[in-house]
Every structure is written in structure tokens, then in C-alpha cells.
Structure to design on (417 residues):
């Protein structure tokens, strides 16, 4: 395959991945690393570098569309970014010391567990949770425009969410992904943030988290311009299209798409870790 | 964990003040991404024009040469009109975009006189700058 053909095919695949990543809040990276290594036989380190860069493009490109709707909460995002960026730094430093096959197994398990959690029926009355003292102190409670006007919410279990976010950041730094799945679930399940707020706030955080490990990847020579170029441009195009659809989409169907995608990816990661070459 | 602060009446966050800052930051992010995409695209044209018909091979990891691993090296390569240098410069701009978002958030929280969140944001910014400048890229 010539560079011209390779670039075109990778750009198309990345466009689809970006669309999927944006719609689900996953960030596209989780799909990209397996695709680049399995379909295109790219060395995992180049795939991780290109994916990490594309994760920033996905996140930042979609942010403008998200904030116009007033869903995201910058206080929650900024507070949790302390955990994710620190975790990302740790993860990127550890990446060379841990066998990637072991990482794939761990990550596959995390994804499958996440898929299970996201399909668990949630209690219907999520709207009138009592204010948590710590969340109130941190001024995380907010409101967002819903169909019947502004809807307020009270954030719960801040320490649990913060710890999970450190893990999400570490995974992001280790595997070069956005860890959107872990982020959304930590905010959704532990902190009880409404799904639309958690998805969009997590999208905001993914770019910052990825930037925390991107510098380390760049200095290690994991970011190849020839590979990162079609990946970044393709993912950006796909994510811009996806963010337009997201604003109109229903929460229920979104969650279904979301959980199916993370389940498939989890199985894929487990298989890769046990039997595949990393 | 927040430490005990002076009991001075802190203004409650106004959701629409927050929202205004978010809109500005969102536009900043989009401009940064579009700028970086334009630089990457221009580099792609040069790169594909010169190397488009060579075989693509990413099976074996060799690591990038130092000109693509440091900020100074990337700028040097891009100034000389090299396609891959331009792409790498665009990618550096992309990495800088969320960092700029965090830096501008300090201003936003400052306007709201939210000292706690100014401090949180400074911590995040310090981690990001350490990664970009302290891990060898800046040299």
C-alpha cells in the first residue's frame, strides 16, 4: 500500500471512529487503537500516539457545539481534571514498564464492567437528591436546560468520583485513549450527575486529560506525523458531525448505543490481551 | 479537600455567568482546533506530494527522529517548509489548545472571585505544563 492509499483509508476509518466516539462520549481513541493495530498492522506505540492526538481533536472540536446547549459544568470538570491529569501523567510514565497485553486484559475487564453498569436500571427519581455537603462546598451543584425549563441537580459522592477519575486518567495515559467510558460512568453512577451533563462535561475533560500525557508521548517519539495526520483529520471531521447529532438525540437511545459499544470493545480488548499480539 | 477559608460571603455561582465563560472557551477551543487542522492539512499536501507514492510501513516501531520530538525541532522543520514538520507543528497547536482553555479558565474564575477554583485550575495547569515542558519536549 502506498502512503497516499494508506492515508486515504486511515482517514475514512478515523472519520467513522470519530463519529462513533463523539456520539457515545468515548472519544474515538478506544476504537482507533484496535483498528489501527488489527486492520493496518500499525505498531501499538504509533497507534497510541496517533489516537491520543485524535482524542484531543475530538474533545476540543465538539466542545463549542456542546457548550452552546449549556449542558456541561466547568466546576465539576475542573475539579476532576486535577485527578485525571495527575493520573494521566502517572499512566504515561508507567506505560513503558507494564506489558501491553496485561493492560489490554485489565482494560477489557473495565469496559465490560462499565457496559454492565450502564445497562443497570437507574432509580426513576434522580431529580430531588439531597445536597451533599462536600459537593455544595465545592459549588458543583448546577442546572441545565431541559425540555420543561432549567433543571437543577445535586452532585453526590465526590471522593468516589475523584478516585475513579484518577483511574480514568491513568488508563488514558497508559493506553492513549480518552477513557470517556470510565469518566461518564464515574460521573453518572457515583456522582449522580444527569447523563447529558456528565457526557458533555466528560467530553470537555477528555482533551485536557489527553494533553497531560501527549507531551510525554511526543518526547518519546510515539507521535508519527504521517500516521497522526489522517487519524486526526478524520476523527475531527467525524466528531464534528457527531456532536451535531448528539444535541438532538434522546438520552435513552444514546445510553443503549453507548453500552453496546463499550461491551464490544471490552470483548475485543480481552481477546487481544489473551490471544492477540500487542 | 477544601481547607477552612475566610467566611467572607462568596458569591453563589451564577449559572449563566458560568455559561458565558463556557461559550467563550468553547469558541476558543474550536478556533484552536480549526487552526491546527489547517496547519496539519497544509503539511499533509506537502508530505503527500513528495512521499505519496512511497510504500507505507508502520509495522515496526523506530521512534521519531529528534526533529519531531522537541518543540524547537518541530518549529525548525516547519519553518523550512517540510511537510511532516508542518503536520507536527499543527499537532503541537492541537495539544496547546486544551492547555489554553485551562489557562483562560483561571481568568474566568478570577472574574467570579472564585479563589478556590482559581487554585484548582492552577494545579491542573501546572501538571499540563510539566508534561509539555518538563518531560523533554521543550528542550
Amino acid at each position: 500500500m502506498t502512503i497516499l492509499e494508506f492515508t486515504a483509508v486511515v482517514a475514512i476509518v478515523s472519520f467513522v471512529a470519530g463519529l462513533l466516539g463523539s456520539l457515545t462520549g468515548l472519544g474515538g481513541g478506544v476504537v482507533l487503537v484496535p483498528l489501527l493495530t488489527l486492520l493496518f498492522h500499525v505498531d501499538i506505540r504509533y497507534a497510541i500516539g496517533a489516537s491520543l492526538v485524535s482524542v484531543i481533536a475530538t474533545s476540543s472540536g465538539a466542545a463549542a457545539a456542546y457548550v452552546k446547549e449549556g449542558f456541561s459544568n466547568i466546576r465539576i470538570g475542573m475539579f476532576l481534571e486535577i485527578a485525571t491529569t495527575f493520573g494521566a501523567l502517572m499512566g504515561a510514565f508507567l506505560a513503558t514498564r507494564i506489558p501491553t497485553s496485561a493492560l489490554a486484559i485489565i482494560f477489557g475487564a473495565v469496559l465490560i464492567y462499565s457496559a454492565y453498569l450502564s445497562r443497570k436500571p437507574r432509580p426513576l427519581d434522580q431529580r430531588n437528591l439531597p445536597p451533599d455537603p462536600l459537593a455544595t462546598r465545592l459549588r458543583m451543584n448546577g442546572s441545565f436546560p431541559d425540555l420543561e425549563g432549567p433543571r437543577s441537580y445535586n452532585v453526590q459522592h465526590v471522593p468516589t468520583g475523584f478516585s475513579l477519575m484518577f483511574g480514568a486518567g491513568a488508563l488514558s495515559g497508559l493506553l492513549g485513549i480518552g477513557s470517556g467510558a470510565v469518566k461518564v460512568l464515574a460521573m453518572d453512577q457515583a456522582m449522580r450527575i444527569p447523563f447529558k451533563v456528565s457526557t458533555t462535561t466528560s467530553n470537555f475533560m477528555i482533551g485536557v486529560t489527553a494533553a497531560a500525557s501527549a507531551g510525554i508521548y511526543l518526547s518519546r517519539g510515539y507521535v508519527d506525523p504521517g500516521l497522526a495526520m489522517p487519524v486526526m483529520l478524520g476523527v475531527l471531521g467525524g466528531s464534528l458531525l457527531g456532536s451535531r447529532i448528539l444535541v438532538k438525540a434522546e438520552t435513552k437511545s444514546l445510553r443503549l448505543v453507548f453500552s453496546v459499544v463499550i461491551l464490544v470493545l471490552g470483548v475485543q480488548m480481552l481477546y487481544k490481551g489473551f490471544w492477540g499480539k500487542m | 479537600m477544601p481547607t477552612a477559608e475566610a467566611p467572607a460571603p462568596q458569591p453563589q455561582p451564577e449559572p449563566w455567568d458560568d455559561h458565558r465563560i463556557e461559550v467563550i472557551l468553547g469558541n476558543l477551543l474550536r478556533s484552536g482546533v480549526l487552526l491546527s487542522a489547517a496547519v496539519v492539512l497544509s503539511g499533509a499536501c506537502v508530505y503527500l506530494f513528495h512521499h505519496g507514492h512511497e510504500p507505507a510501513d508502520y509495522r515496526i516501531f523506530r521512534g521519531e527522529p529528534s526533529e519531531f520530538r522537541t518543540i524547537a525541532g518541530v518549529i525548525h522543520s516547519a519553518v523550512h517548509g517540510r511537510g511532516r514538520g508542518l503536520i507536527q507543528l499543527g499537532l503541537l497547536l492541537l495539544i496547546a489548545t486544551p492547555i489554553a482553555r485551562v489557562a483562560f479558565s483561571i481568568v474566568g474564575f478570577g472574574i467570579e472571585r472564585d479563589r478556590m477554583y482559581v487554585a484548582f485550575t492552577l494545579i491542573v495547569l501546572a501538571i499540563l505544563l510539566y508534561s509539555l515542558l518538563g518531560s523533554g519536549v521543550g528542550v
About this structure: The longest strand of chain A covers residues 142-146.
